[in-house]
Amino acid sequence: MVLYSESSSTPTLATSFDDGSFTVEHKSVPKSSDSDTPNPPLYVVYPTEKGTYPVILFLHGFSILNTWYSDLFEFIASHGYIIVAPGQTLFGLLKGLCVFSAIGDVEDAAEAADWINKNQGENLKLILPHDVSPDLENVALAGHSKGGKAAFALALGHANTSFKFKALIGLDPVEGPSTSNRLEPKILNYIPQDFNISLPIALIGTGLGDDGCCGCFPPAAPWGCNHPFFFNECKPPVCYFVAKDFGHMDMLDDWVVKFTGIFVCKTGKGSYADMRRACGGIFIAFLKTYMFDDAKDLTTIVDSPSTCAPIKLDPVLWLPS
Fold this sequence. Notes:
AB_hydrolase_fold; Rossmann fold; Chlorophyllase-like; chlorophyllase activity; alpha/beta; 31% helix; Chlorophyllase; ten-stranded mixed beta sheet
């Protein structure tokens, strides 16, 4: 186990928290009669410079539009990553409300993965500029809230996909509204290191996610269904970071955070831009480590979180093996 320990010397800054050097564009892709686009409108954010870039398949949270993560996605993409974020149809939203299950979300995630992989990435190449290509050897699976649970469920084999992911990232994943009312497929067994997942895993939790809003709304990420319980079941290699002073929605675009802070869940009092920078920087440092064997930034964050991260991260853990 690697716990953080503050160094007495001035640490090297983690460049993952800085703006990347790539110019970024984004595109919403609707579904047409001759298209198999997954969960339209598909939202794709990508570098514009010529090159081949790793891909992140990102699954949105319950009732959250994929475009509401635009600032976070653009920050990550500026470091040389292609973000593919399936949307949600009205039928899918209503089905999720009525059936009260995440099974459909997991099946949709598998379809999106197969869509990316089809014909050696041809679907994605048609969306991207002609000289920008996806690196299908380096694709990460990620998700926030209910989408985080769906990402873990897909990695656990609850839906069939031929795609082989390189890494898994859970951004404040949530199993359900309570321990007695968990969404299908139930994946938490409350047994240490019980997940049968061979991928390296990063977990980013929030310190305020299990607090209710205004005393009348239940927590968005309730205790027993939230990030520490996911971490408890992960096998190494796994990283774990908690944004201690921020809430469950605070990595979304500013206006969404302000709105949800009134009606949905508790929000932090710090800079939401810093929260997005922290989450995006952890994504990048983790993927550099496990896609490209470059652990410099991740090591810096783990060794000196209070001096290199834009927000307070506590705890910080890294179990490399």
